[in-house]
Amino acid sequence: MPGRMTQRILFVCLGNICRSPSAEAVTRQMAETRAMSLDLDSAGTGNWHVGKAPYGAMQTAARSRGYDLSRLKARQVSRGDFTRFDLIVAMDAENLADLKRLRPQGATARLALFTDFAPQTGADHVPDPYYTRDFDGALDLIEHCAQGLLAQI
Ligand code: 4NP
């Protein structure tokens, strides 16, 4: 992604109410601390929660670490995202497979798995806390991945 001052990164999960909005908020806060200029957003492959704020228990866990998710609104991934963003970061293999299937001709965005930025964790996906109920564990992993991502760009 050389040549662009502000890198544009989209985080993608299934519902856009737990993992990807958390990844967006955590990465934004870490980037601000490092005075890095990034254009960040998140979206879901599914459309069930479009227009809704992040899941309540996710917001609560994030807020206890200083991340405010309250103003985010779920949206679905669109074809335009594949040229609007430099990098699209998936939370798990299913998200990545769905993104590859949705990717239009002429797409310019690179696709990546968030956990690939934190190999030291041994994780190969961010488990969905909507199902595991481990919101703090998800945030721990997201923080490691965000640190690794920022170290690489
Ligand atoms: P997320 O979690 O992908 O991390 O936002 C989900 C939340 C809700 C649903 C799926 C995933 N759902 O099907 O309702």
Overview of the structural elements:
With 153 residues, the protein is of the alpha/beta class. The protein is 39% helix and 14% strand. It contains 6 helices and 4 strands; from the N terminus they run E-H-E-H-H-E-H-E-H-H. The chain has helices spanning 19-33, 56-63, 81-84, 93-102, 129-132, 135-152, and strands spanning 7-13, 38-44, 87-90, 110-113. The chain has a 4-stranded parallel β-sheet with strand order 2-1-3-4, with helices on both faces. The chain is globular. The model has no long low-confidence stretch (mean pLDDT 96). Bound molecules: 4-nitrophenyl phosphate. 4-nitrophenyl phosphate binds next to loops.
Helix and strand arrangement:
Blueprint: E1 7-13, H1 19-33, E2 38-44, H2 56-63, H3 81-84, E3 87-90, H4 93-102, E4 110-113, H5 129-132, H6 135-152
Parallel strand pairs: 1-2, 1-3, 3-4
Helix pairs in contact: 1-6
The structure holds 4-nitrophenyl phosphate.
Which features characterize this protein?
153 residues; alpha/beta; 4-stranded parallel sheet; 4 strands; binds 4-nitrophenyl phosphate
Q: What general outline do the C-alpha atoms trace?
A: globular
Poorly predicted runs are: none
Put simply, the count of helices is: 6
How many beta-strand elements?
4
Q: Provide the β-strand percentage band.
A: 5-15%
Bound molecules: 4-nitrophenyl phosphate
Strand order of the largest sheet: 2-1-3-4
The profile of the biggest β sheet is: 4 strands, parallel
Q: Report the C-alpha radius of gyration, rounded.
A: 14 Å
| Mean of residue pLDDT values | 96
- Multimerization state: single chain
